[in-house]
Amino acid sequence: MAQLRLGISGLGRGAMLTVPGLAANARIELVAGFDPSREPRLGLRRAYGVRAYESFEDLIAHPGLDAVYIASPHGHHASQAIAAARAGKHVLVEKPMAVSIAEARAMADAAAESGTCLMVGPSHGFDGPVSLAADIIASGNIGRARMIQAFNYTDFLLRPRRPEELDRERGGGVVLSQATHQIDIVRRLAGSKVRSIRAQLFDWDTERPADGAFSAFLFFENGATATLGYSGYAHYDSDALLGWIGEMGRPKARETHARARSRLAGTDEAAQKQARGFAGPASNTAEPPVAHEHFGFVLASCEQADVELTTSGVILHGDTSREELAAPLPETRRTNIGEAFAACVLDGEAPIFDGAWGLHTLACCHAILRSGDEGREVMLDEIVSESH
Ligand SMILES: NC(=O)c1ccc[n+]([C@@H]2O[C@H](COP(=O)([O-])OP(=O)(O)OC[C@H]3O[C@@H](n4cnc5c(N)ncnc54)[C@H](O)[C@@H]3O)[C@@H](O)[C@H]2O)c1
Predict the structure, then answer these.
(1) Is 185 near ligand 1, meaning CB less than 6 Å away?
(2) What are the boundaries of the region Disordered (predicted)?
(3) CA 155 to ligand 1 centroid distance, Å
(4) How far is the CA of 70 from the centre of ligand 1 (A)?
(5) 283 within ligand 1 shell (Cβ under 6 A)
(6) Interior angle at CA 259, CA 254 and CA 262, nearest 5
(7) Of 8, 15, 7, nearest to 285 (Cα)?
């Protein structure tokens, strides 16, 4: 197979952000899509000239289909990934891999049984500066990563949302959707699995009840630690620390958070949400990035230097020097996702973000939730062993 023929399930915001980077890959041919709503189906045809089906089964049965990118709401990831694997299709599934650990395990098992690729993401663990920092740390030249800080102050909760995105039972709130990014980043930098987590969750907005903020302290198996801080309440904006470059690598207005509540008030939230995907007009996601995507402020303290992640690469703060290193910026956002997926399907190269990786990151999310609920340190083994 010289080129993989790809279908897309779920034509909303996530797909809108990632499909350009998949379609730009010469080894990937975008051949079809699926969405239960008509407008996104029409949008995919407008944008890429391909057919979008009205059912997942029809998508999977599309002649010659090799693989599927699953960008449906969290609750559908597992059933669709398992059905695809059983039909012999390779799977790229959006983060979070699934809602429950049992689902994630069943997905990994289905892929292993059918011998198909299962790749999870894209999370910001794929960002160019994260890869550069991870490579520098893994080289051993600046000692071991010991103490990582990652914090992000966003407007996540005040963007248009589907009801299930605010409902923890269905995978809603900031932990499964947002902590996933931070966990993937700090796992890459620490170069180790997480042993235990102590966390606290916050639900501050009575008009929009949901898990909206958290603090978490992670202990890694190799002795490194990470402190995560996240708020989705659209108050402070941590992009101030990243030169007012937004998450997608584009310049951002300083008033964005101050306007978040008024933008949402009195509007049809479902329609606003849908308009951010293929159903809507071309958004700024189609504009080329001027900088790397990012997920807030990240600093990894190693034994001989601190590594600061920026929107162009990293800054190494050493004993006697301060060195800026650039990470190559792709013309199209997320082309590295397409490259990693094509390498898995066509060359048999195991991806970093495989099923086992996704399962461990999901387990970290559940450890954050449980630690917040029960007010104690939670061992990852406890979360993972329960679902057997
Ligand atoms: N990696 C990223 O940068 C990123 C960004 C946004 C969303 N996401 C992920 O993408 C997924 C979807 O979130 P979103 O923000 O795009 O939501 P969305 O509401 O914008 O889009 C979801 C789309 O899925 C469709 N849909 C509903 N039920 C479906 C089903 N059973 N099968 C297929 N499609 C179905 C909806 O009609 C809608 O068009 C989530 O898992 C989310 O975490 C990832």
Answers:
(1) no
(2) 255-285
(3) 18
(4) 8
(5) no
(6) 175
(7) 15
